[in-house]
Amino acid sequence: MTEKLDQLRNSVGPxxxxxxxxxxxxxxxxxxxxxxxxxxxxxxxxxxxxxxxxGSDDTSAPATTAGGSGDTSGATETTAGATETTAAAGxxxxxxxxxxxxxxPGSELDPISMDNLGSYTxxxxxxxxxxxxxxxxxxxxxLATEWTPNDDGSEWTFKLREGVTWHSGxxxxxxxxxxxxxxxxxxxxxxxxxxAPGSTTAADDFTVxxxxxxxDGQFPYNVCHWNPQTVITPADYVAGTTLxxxxxxxxxxxxxxxxxxxxxKFSRNDAYWxxxxxxxxxxxxxxxxxxxxxxxxxxxxxxxxxxxxxxxGEAILNxxxxxxxxxxxxxxxxxxxxxxxEGTFTDVNVRTxxxxxxxxxxxxxxxxxxxxxxxxxxxxxxxxEFFDAGLAQRERDVEQAKSLLDAAGKAGLAITMHVPxxxxxxxxxxxxxxxxxxxxxxxxxxxxxxxxxYDRWCKVYDSKTxxxxxxxxxxxxxxxxxxRGVPDVYLVKAYATGExxxxxxxxxxxxTAVKDYQAALTLDDxxxxxxxxxxxxNTDVPYVxxxxxxxxxxxxxxxxxxxxxxxxxxxxxKAGFTA
Amino acid sequence: MSRYLLRRLGSAVxxxxxxxxxxxxxxSVLPSNVGRQILGPFAPQEQVDAxxxxxxxxxxxxxxxxxxxxRVFTLNFGESYTSGAPVNDVIFPALWRSGKLALLAxxxxxxxxxxxxxxxxxxxxxxxxxxxxxxxxxxxxxPEFVSAAVxxxxxxxxxxxxxxxxxxxxxxxxxxxxQYLWVPALAMAITYFGYLARMTRAGVISAQHxxxxxxxxxxxxxxxxxxxxxxxxxxxxxxxxxxxxxxxYLFGGIIGVERVFNYxxxxxxMLIAVGxxxxxxxxxxxxxxxxxxxxxxxxxxxxxAALNPRVRLEVSK
Lengths: 579, 317
Fold this sequence. Notes:
The complex is a heterodimer of chains A (579) and B (317). With 579 residues, chain A is of the alpha+beta class. Chain A is 28% helix and 21% strand. Chain A has an eight-stranded mixed beta sheet, with helices on both faces. In chain A, a hairpin with a 5-residue loop joins strand 6 and strand 7. Chain A is globular. The model of chain A is unreliable at 63-76 (pLDDT under 50). Chain B has 317 residues and is an all-alpha fold. Chain B is built from 14 helices and no strands. In chain B, helix 8 crosses helix 10 (223-252). Chains A and B meet through helix 7 and helix 13 of A and helix 5, helix 7 and helix 12 of B.
């Protein structure tokens, strides 16, 4: 280790040293180093110095404003996180109204209780997070300019950005952050698992410290865009206040008007801390289906669409001269759940047989046009640094599947599969139905609107009756999971006893592995429990995970600089129309 | 005439009450926990119970029914379960949008179809008659959403002469609004053209063969005078009745066209409300459509009476 690197290493805490050590030893590549470094609060400049000290040819720092970067010529791919369309030669024109075809809000614009992408979009356009999207899965400063853990990751200190003003006037200060965190920490709140009310304290107007319930080396991921409800709202913005009733925020655009049936209109915030946006205004045009959005982009009625499916999006994907399509490689996936507690799927042989029925590469090729990674019946995506590639990939084996069904006394099993009418899922269900037929199963599809489907999936969360979990849903179906920077949501909510555990899966070994993973403070420490998690989930098969799909979003060719995350965020502070 | 009007209005109130009662019964028998519906599957049961109490869903069914009737007759439907907005703020803008689209569709279709029906009747069994009848059969047999999708592809995507998203921006002038609405209105007009043209044709043919038309002709009136003064006044009655029924349908039933053009009219509003089980919005929208049906049929009856002295006499009795 060079003297310079030693100096840099000794100037930071143990969690940050671990990331530097990972780069020095070669266990982290440049990309992973920038991601991990951003999470534990290493500044862009500091990481550039570390890369230089390690002799890296590319010492460029990651993005430091709200937005990452990605290659976007034609249909291109970025990794695990946010992506943006890059500025074209000739620059961006001043002004213009950017029209984004977005999902219709499904609930009130309440920052705390919102629960769907459509509602996220207007809220997260007005309000911002402590940490924002950086390059790939990295975090970048947003309302916090830097963050530092203590030695064991049980306490995190955030330095807040000075000079930020609310749209309604008045300065953004630590009081706003403390009040927001307290609102999110009450029982049932989005941060209740991490923070207790009163555990966020302000040292001064621009410094807050959060004392966690248990140490967490990745805590900033919980106060960033990956946890949409953690937007920072004014101190007196009590629970139940909605954005349309009381427009406010610190974001680059201010809400002017909102009609849940048609549009949300924003005008630029000239006082934005990141500089005055180029665009004059933003308009989110709400609709209910992808086909309408595709037609809107094709006809020029919209400039941007997100969550494009390969099936149904051919007109956009096959027209690179008029449209730019960006693929975000990440951890978003589909789960085929099977109720392991009661009914048809209590026997692991039945579940394994079903898992063995699928030709996953064929599913990826047909349903996604090849834009995805094959899944192996666990929620750890290949893009995660701690992914264990050593676990054998489950391959299609029709004969073994048939014999397992026979052994379980379920030969010729007839069952209904419940699926939402969402993106490519109905087509995926048809492909699965066809492949399951090969092992003798007779699957009937029940495809229904997302308005009612989620009652089939996980009707009610019962926290009072042990074991706690969702209850009242169907025993067999496909559900969607969006992209996340870390897999904690999947692990805790879908597998460990949690509110999205539609398989009713309960495994002490699995839960121990998850706890070990969450308690691990360094990347190396996380690898072993993650390996266990993969193996247990793959063996117990409460869910078949056929693939991890790339999020696709498309813009008209003359639009540049839009940062999309696949979770309802469209950061347009650097966006505009090309000259 | 005033007695007739009063009688019709009284009958309208009874119809409204029946409609509101049917909506209430249907909603009440649906297996749904309203509080759970609003707060979602993960809300604590205590909060769900408290909300059900606040909304009155824990009260006896008769009390709920009376509250429902009060909402109907005061036109105050409460708040939307999903957005929290007053229902009137949801349904009346949607009604206004549906009204604009329906009006444009009628302006496009009524004169053309009546004219086509008259031409077809005057040239019965000739080439032009066959052409109009067959064209009408063809257009009315195509579902609205199919013609909407085809027109969208041609005029909005390919030629870019119309707008794929038909909601005009706030503050749009009438001309700008027409740019947004003409393609979906054309889709609706195409569908109704055949129906109205055939109704007009049948009415005119029937009137042409009537005694009074023959008498008028024998008295020496020109064929255009006979057509204007005698045939049309009688022949249009069924067409007007059909139009009045279609008004209600156009306000609430053009869901396919609204979906294709991402237009937020009353049909889409009802569809979304059904999907989300947003009962207050659904109840308000259904009753609004019912009211429109009643007023449009009343207006049609009055118009027919104005056109036809025999009907006017019966109405005055």
